[in-house]
Amino acid sequence: xxxxxxxxxxxxxxxxxxxxxxxxxxxxxxxxxxxxxxxxxxxxxxxxxxxxxxxxxxxxxxxxxxxxxxxxxxxxxxxxxxxxxxxxxxxxxxxxxxxxxxxxxxxxxxxxxxxxxxxxxxxxxxxxxxxxxxxxxxxxxxxxxxxxxxxxxxxxxxxxxxxxxxxxxxxxxxxxxxxxxxxxxxxxxxxxxxxxxxxxxxxxxxxxxxxxxxxxxxxxxxxxxxxxxxxxxxxxxxxxxxxxxxxxxxxxxxxxxxxxxxxxxxxxxxxxxxxxxxxxxxxxxxxxxxxxxxxxxxxxxxxxxxxxxxxxxxxxxxxxxxxxxxxxxxxxxxxxxxxxxxxxxxxxxxxxxxxxxxxxxxxxxxxxxxxxxxxxxxxxxxxxxxxxxxxxxxxxxxxxxxxxxxxxxxxxxxxxxxxxxxxxxxxxxxxxxxxxxxxxxxxxxxxxxxxxxxxxxxxxxxxxxxxxxxxxxxxxxxxxxxxxxxxxxxxxxxxxxxxxxxxxxxxxxxxxxxxxxxxxxxxxxxxxxxxxxxxxxxxxxxxxxxxxxxxxxxxxxxxxxxxxxxxxxxxxxxxxxxxxxxxxxxxxxxxxxxxxxxxxxxxxxxxxxxxxxxxxxxxxxxx
Length: 623
Known about the structure:
The chain contains three helices and 53 strands. By secondary structure, it is mainly beta. Strands 22-24-27-30-28-25 form a six-stranded parallel beta barrel. Strands 1-2-3-4 form a four-stranded mixed sheet, with no helix packed on it. The model is unreliable at 1-7, 135-146 and 210-214 (pLDDT under 50).
């Protein structure tokens, strides 16, 4: 008797009258429809239970079907044959589409996602959409050098779609029988779309097919046309991308064009099935992106971890890359650096807390970026591709370590508080040198090589408070070298193409250095070298003599300067005691018999006495 008021679950048919006066929470289930109601004693009425989805897709051994929220079947078919059409019917309902656990076979190029759809599976490797090669792709109607098709895409490629969420499933490419000569496609592509979230999705295996001028295969793409704005307000979070194809000449693993992307906690294994890395594809390809964040991502086995370029939308700006790690790639994090000035010098890129190691060429190559608290280990392992560990606009508190004979360390307009130990290369070897500042760094490799611009000139340089072996100046003008400590194993301060001018070398410590300042730099009249430790260019002291009433010339002693050429040393003597003053004027000079010493000569012999002739002397190197 389902009318009994003390029963908590009541059953009947959809046409049956429902009782009243029951306890709160009592349920009524229509056995013929499966619809469930819950009794509300306050309203004295039944509330129909609303399903947490607009459609659900299920399958068993032989059948695949989709139901709407009321439990009504909206599509069904043979499992493994009609999976795509059933899922598409569910997607056309819009709203939340739940795909239950199982493997669903999807022909490439069939599935389209309209606006306002939330696709949810039961979890990675539980709900699997297995994409297989579809025979229509060889037709040029669908695949030309100007167009790379998509296995799954948004419905409106021209105007884009919006409000799409994909969560908790695996997209797997069945690449059986495919190779690099096959027709390539991309796994999931969005064109001109907005408000997209891809979360906890695994992309497994890459189509290895042909690379066209429009690009090649890839896994997740957000694309924009130059006449429009591209994709925007996109979140890609907690996703996994695994290549494992037979090809290495793919476009890229993931690509982004548009505005306001957040890419976080993603992992990319870009290696092919045989373990080889990609020739040209990247873990993350950021093309013409604005106002976006990439954080806590990991990747290896690609041509680059993150590669930023112009793209269809033109320049890029306001990109924040944080706490990412890349290894065993061609390079770590970089952007295009074209000589024709195609990039905007005011593009704002910040790279912080990132780590790159075991890469073939460069670690972080981003001349427009502010790079903070980053680390690069064991870069430039390729003997033919010597490159920088970190190259940026401003580099702060970052570290480069490499055992490679071809590695270079850091370069940038401003380098502060960094460390480098490239053993056989320069710790800093910038290509363009003007208005640069090196402050408070420790360089234990080759040191700083300011090779200058195309004319071999470096200008307006500040090198302050660093510890290093060598500073090599490529000619240049207006260079300040102050308060540095030179350590053994280097060449001190030297030059390359031409002797620099207007150089101030002051308050540096050469005590532990194996070399000091090149003689040509010292000899240049416009250069000032003074008050350094371990490289004495000026010295002073006092001297006391005993007059005998006949001697006018006295030996002061060693001058202690870095040169002994009398023509390069000026000596000044000032009489202090009364007998020395009485015998003056006096003059100081370099001892012609021993150029390491200086003497003083009075115009008349000082009076006899013991220690009665006292002077103060000063000697300095002159040009």
